Amino acid sequence: MNKIRVGVLFGGCSTEYKVSLSSAAAVLEHLNRDKYDVVMIGITRDGRWYRYNGDLADIREDRWSSQSAQCVPAVLSPSKETRGLIELVHTEFHITTLDVVFPVLHGKNGEDGTVQGLLELSDLPFVGCGTLSSAICMDKAVAKNVVQAAGLEVPPSITVLAGDSIAEAVGAAAKLGFPLYVKPSRSGSSIGITKAYSEQELISGIEEAFSHDGKVVIEQHVNGFEVGCAILGDASQPMIGEIDEIALTGEFFDHEEKYSLGTAAIHLPARIHKDMADKVKAMALRIYSVLGCSGLARVDLFYASDGRLLFNEVNTLPGFTAHSRYPNMMKHAGLAFPELLDRLIELETAKAPL
Questions:
Q1: Does one domain contain both 197 and 303?
Q2: Is 131 domain-assigned?
Q3: 157, 187 contact by CB (below 8 A)
Q4: Is 77 assigned a catalytic role?
Q5: What would the pLDDT profile of 8-20 be if each residue is shown by its tens digit?
Q6: Can you tell me the distance from the alpha carbon of 212 to that of 204, in angstroms, rounded to the nearest whole number?
Q7: Which of 74, 113, 147, 148 is the most exposed place for a label (fewest CB within 10 A)?
Q8: DSSP letters spanning 234-303
Q9: Has the keyword Metal-binding been applied to this entry (predicted)?
Q10: What distance in Å separates the CA atoms of residue 56 and residue 40, rounded to the nearest whole number?
Q11: What domain range is 265 assigned to?
Q12: pTM attached to this predicted model
């Protein structure tokens, strides 16, 4: 049986670079080498691309790019004729064709439609959402507007652009009522998010958010808790994982809490009744469809104390270690990590070329 050649992208010019390394190391560890010929493609923080031939441990520990003997300068070709990786070896170039690409990239320059656009240009099948859906879901302000236009509830918020009057923004946001969440519109892993209880904290939060993005969302706090729903496949024939719940004892689920769980706990399955679980799945699938998602995504909702469900965000490439939320939700639905990777790749390789 011919093996499927899978290009696994990792790293990237993103504040979530290290998260990508952890996710990619787990994916690479669990890909079945009897089925797949794996090509590792690393992107450094400053945007240099290499075919990497070294050890997984050096990816996990962020030593991979210092192993010069294991790194060959390379680029993904945008040409449909090439459909693969161009490696620059001294004065020559070598072409390695790829059957499918798994972009295990988080945040800007990877999860936001940029790499997806390159892959669509080259007509290379790839795991995950397409260019438009990836870009929309990465932009919290745009995603909320699209979801709200579809008739689904979102927390009240305002959007502030670089150059807008901070005083006017603070005045408008204060009318929503404190506390407020201040978020970079296009950032992941809760990086740059703060919680404001006063106008001064709001100003500081806006400044912090602007250091990560030129667009900021200021959002009303929702009394309740967050639930997540993992979806696999196309919206017409999806597999939906077990719902999880984030229980907080601290302020909010910030970047540190996501990876330490110091004052937070994740309950899987979520501590909600079946009828509410069914409503969560239905709303998550509706959002998945409205935002044009395909392949996979995790849809996060707020379950308000008064029983309402409100949209929070969609992660088109959520954390992908064996202990991350998305794989665990799928595991509890009966799909183990290696089989999850098989399904994701099969979804793309089974599609007829355009």
A1: no
A2: no
A3: no
A4: no
A5: 999 999 989 999 9
A6: 13
A7: 148
A8: -TTS-EE---EEEEESSS---HHHHHH-SSEEEESS-SS-HHHHHHHHHHHHHHHHHTT--SEEEEEEEE
A9: yes
A10: 10
A11: 136-153+223-350
A12: 0.93
Q: Provide the domain count of the chain.
A: 3
Residues with Cβ within 8 Å of residue 307, at least 6 apart in sequence: none
CA distance 286 to 292: 10
Are 41 and 145 within one domain?
Answer: no
Q: How far apart are CA 129 and CA 280, in angstroms?
A: 21
40 plus 113 within the same structural domain: yes
Whether 168 sits among the annotated catalytic residues: the reply is no
Task: Give whole-number Cα distances, 181 to 173, 206, 257, 266, 293, in Å.
Answer: 10, 10, 16, 21, 26
Q: Please identify which residue in the block is written with the tokens 């305002």.
A: 158
Out of 14, 16, 87, 245, pick the active-site residue.
Answer: 16
Per-residue pLDDT tens for 223-263?
A: 999 999 999 999 888 999 999 999 986 555 454 544 445 55
Nearest to 28 by CA among 249, 203, 291, 20: 20
Which one from 23, 122, 187, 324 is the annotated catalytic residue? 324
Q: Does 315 belong to an annotated binding site?
A: yes
Instruction: Report the C-alpha gap between 266 and 274 in whole angstroms.
Output: 18
- Express each pLDDT in 189-231 by its tens digit: 678 899 999 999 999 999 999 999 999 999 999 999 999 999 9
| 300 is an annotated ligand-binding site residue | yes
Out of 189, 257, 294, 348, the active site residue is 189
Q: Residue holding tokens 């490696």?
A: 87
Element of type H or E holding 18: helix 17-30
Query: Distance between CA atoms of 303 and 129, rounded to whole angstroms?
Result: 26
